[in-house]
Known about the structure:
Layout: E1 2-4, H1 13-23, E2 32-39, E3 46-52, E4 55-56, H2 58-61, E5 68-77, H3 84-94, H4 116-135, E6 158-163, E7 168-175, H5 178-198, E8 211-212, H6 216-246, E9 252-259, E10 261-268, E11 271-278, E12 280-282, E13 288-291, E14 298-304, E15 313-315, H7 324-330, H8 333-339, H9 362-367, E16 373-386
Amino acid sequence: xxxxxxxxxxxxxxxxxxxxxxxxxxxxxxxxxxxxxxxxxxxxxxxxxxxxxxxxxxxxxxxxxxxxxxxxxxxxxxxxxxxxxxxxxxxxxxxxxxxxxxxxxxxxxxxxxxxxxxxxxxxxxxxxxxxxxxxxxxxxxxxxxxxxxxxxxxxxxxxxxxxxxxxxxxxxxxxxxxxxxxxxxxxxxxxxxxxxxxxxxxxxxxxxxxxxxxxxxxxxxxxxxxxxxxxxxxxxxxxxxxxxxxxxxxxxxxxxxxxxxxxxxxxxxxxxxxxxxxxxxxxxxxxxxxxxxxxxxxxxxxxxxxxxxxxxxxxxxxxxxxxxxxxxxxxxxxxxxxxxxxxxxxxxxxxxxxxxxxxxxxxxxxxxxxxxxxxxxxxxxxxxxxx
Length: 387
């Protein structure tokens, strides 16, 4: 069964086909909940909430384990922001972003010499990582994950400054577990496919290969995934701290942390289940959540209503309206520049696939989930750094 929160928002046929495949799995608990930012994804549909009992699907969590949005509301007022072009340059110098040299030595998206704050946090993360790699050598990355801790990544990952309706400046940041999470995901997705093939499991899609609860692989995957989710949260915290430092450390009025690619043990309808959120956010009653729009649109800070039919969930953003390839083919540079003219950002053709026109209307997405969330702050972007 599938339950959708998509009134007034288009849903592509490919995404619906994916959702039907997921919902047909025998270990789905109740139904699959579909958020208004839904769109076709690798492995499983982005914008879906997948509750399972007795199994976990690694590809449903995805490659960027623990990816999410974090936001800090500061006491800094919009009129007191420093010169934005210079501030963007300082942020780009302070935080590695993007990717060069195929991620090898000299990659501009990684540290050459990790700073003290990164080394201190890696000191806490390393012991469990060492145990994970010792048990499963395939999880080891080409370079130690310390070199990507506190770095942004590529694609739709971003650092933003935005201003709310009261003229308070927010620092927003979207990133995940980087190469460490990808190594974990790639290994266990392949292992699940191998095992399901060996067991002659009939799946609607090979990407939906799973580990049954009680198996060694189930336990190992969850242990590694929980570590990656923690790495991702610390990664965001370090970058937020770096931007905050550049703003001369204004008072922090509120901190919001919103992971949206993760799996967690939760109790729903009186039963303990695993809930996988693939591009969706947890929205229990009272939870504070960041729901960003595209780089030229509004973003929202919302409070969860704890709707049990959505498994206490809501959307993670606006959601793509077209693929990256389609966006590059159909969006002109002239239209792109018009849509981001009010934002201090990199205005180059390589970001056409991140243009606002490539995403759904964030206002329609918010309206479609009024029974899941309540809006508390409406934000307008003033500065954006993309990977």
